[in-house]
Every structure is written in C-alpha cells, then in structure tokens.
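Example 3.2
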Amino acid sequence: MKLVFATNNKNKILEVQQMLPSSIEIISLESIGCFEEIPETADTIEENAIMKANYVTQKYGYDCFADDTGLEVDALNGEPGVFSARYAGEQRNSDDNMDKLLEALINKTDRNAQFKTVIALNSNGQQHLFTGIARGEITLEKTGNQGFGYDPIFQPEGFEATFAQLSLEEKGAISHRGKATAQLIGFLKN
C-alpha cells in the first residue's frame, strides 16, 4: 500500500516511516509534484490536519494522510498550540521558538505541557482522525541533539531525558506522533 504523507518535513517522514510496517510505503509531496506550501490557517490542530489532507486529495487525487502537532503548555493557557511552528515568527525557527517559550516560563512554577498530534487520513473517499497525546514538562534549558522542534526542552512523563536525548525508536514508542501513528496503522491493517 502506498500513501502520500502531506508534509515537507523530512524528519517527520523519517520518524513515521520507521513506525510503519514495510507493507505501507510513504510517498512524499515532492514525489507527487507538490512543491507549494500547503496552507495551515485553521484555528485548531484538527482543522489544520484536515485542511492539509484535503488539499492533497482534492488537488492531486491521492489517498493521503496529514498531521498537525502542537505543544500545549498549561501555564500559558495552551500556547503555543496551533501556532507552535510559528511561535517566534514566520521564519519557523526551532531555536527561536524554544527561546521564546523558555522566556515565557521564566517565573512560572507550573511547567506541565503536552504534545498533541492529530492525523487526518483520506482513504477510499472517507476521512478518519487519529489523536495522540504525550504529557510531560518543559525543562529549564535545551538538552540533547536528536529529534526536532521542541524536543530539546520537552521531558516526557516517566523519563529523566528529553525527547532530543531519546533514539527514534524510544521516542516513537511514547510520543504523541507515535501514538497517533499506531492508531493509523491499526486502522490500515483492518
């Protein structure tokens, strides 16, 4: 089975492909000739995932899945949330985003947060949503060089390490994207 993954993020593609059984092959946007930036202008993570999946299905005619992820920090009323990738500006720079978040939490004792991923699957004319959540807390400083995005400042519950200190396999087993992807795989196998 071949499915288009509606993302240009090579890290996400690598992470998700590693979780999928060998019977499912991910096709990149590049492979189908989609080089434009797919709009992510919705107010929620769910709506952004749906918007991206629908864009590919409607414009290119492929069954596909798309995800959107947000980091929701309790002390910041769920920010940066749907704006996680652009939290520090349109340049979408992970270091800038982490710096802004760490600065916003300087005088906060509550550092609890969660990563939330929603995957929208368009397959055989139907749409299905899968949600994964990973709870944890925001660390005081960046630690580790694996992963991407906010991984160096997110320490998942039950771990002494950040996502950026875990291997792809370790992170995939407990992460928000891993949980949503596991639901997707379970659905595709049926």
